[in-house]
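Supplementary Note 3. Input sequence used for the single-chain structure prediction.
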Amino acid sequence: FSRTLASIAQQTHLPDVVYIIEDGSKPDYAMTELVHEWRTTVPFKVLYKYVPNAGKRVAQSHAFRDYQDRTDLFLTIDSDTVLDKRAIEESLIPFADEQVMSVAGLLLSMNVDKPLSKLLSVSFPTSFTNGRACASWFNSVSVSCGGLATYRASVIKAHLDHYLNQIVFGQRAMFGDDRMLTHYAALMGKTVYQESSIGYTLMPENLSHLTRQRVRWWKSFWWGGMFLVRQHSPRYMIWWIIVAQYISQVLYAVVFPVILIITPLKNGAFPWVILLYMIGLGVMRSIRLLGIKQADGHAYLPVWRFLIRVSFSTMLNIYLCTLLSYYSFFMMWQVTGWGTRNKVEVSLKKTETEPTS
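The predicted structure, written as discrete structure tokens, is reproduced below.
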């Protein structure tokens, strides 16, 4: 967390106010001394509040309520986000268009010392450089990850009560926060992606943690997308993007079992051609990562590492993007548990190279 604070202080465009919410850390008030020491070294206002763990929505609401009438923009980051020194400045550029309501930044992997985190260093950023970049062309990004996202205060003010009291399957929703904030923004205007606004975040390092995280994300995909489909209009591209995502998941439910299970069993041969096709498709989807530079000017991924990791991450994505999607569909009525934040499961070793600002 100290690296997060340091990266904020080094921004080329400093924030007016930094509002830190510590919710349910163990031990209680674990960050108090660190925050109080840091606030004496920065030129902007720093507010700090400890609250019981009641979910991310409630934690954010303390800052939202206090400043919804006193600021133009809210930028959200997580406690493990380390910002590139130009992250805030670059995130402000799209707001020159008064119709832009939210801006998603690019999140890159910071921990790459474990096999799983190495694979995620390809697949996770690809969801930005491919998926969000494409949706942004239509001003229709459906999810701005909370690790680096900026919203107009008018979006927050108009929807804060619903955000805190959203009922899904008769229960108050505890997650799906990033998706809902972006959906609210989409109801009011354009939602875009700014690739030059870069942050670094920690990836899960064990399969259990990753599974719980992605199940939570997929659950909110199923019920969160339906909110936008009901509330928005087919006159807007984001409506069609969400519907197309639902249709593709239904088609995958038929195609994948036939290609990967039924046909191989029937023919008695492993589907190598299909596997190579999927890897090739994965390379095409992820290839823009080769053009991403870190703050120190070095490539985010050398070509040889990219080719190795994208091959194996393609196999991992069959589990993450297909099997977990279907499982989450049948479990999406469970909307109250967070699932991944009961204890710290990832950390950055002191010997690792951190982003250079």
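The mean pLDDT is 92. Strands lie at 17-23, 45-51, 73-76, 82-83, 100-109, 149-152, 167-168, 171-172, 190-201.
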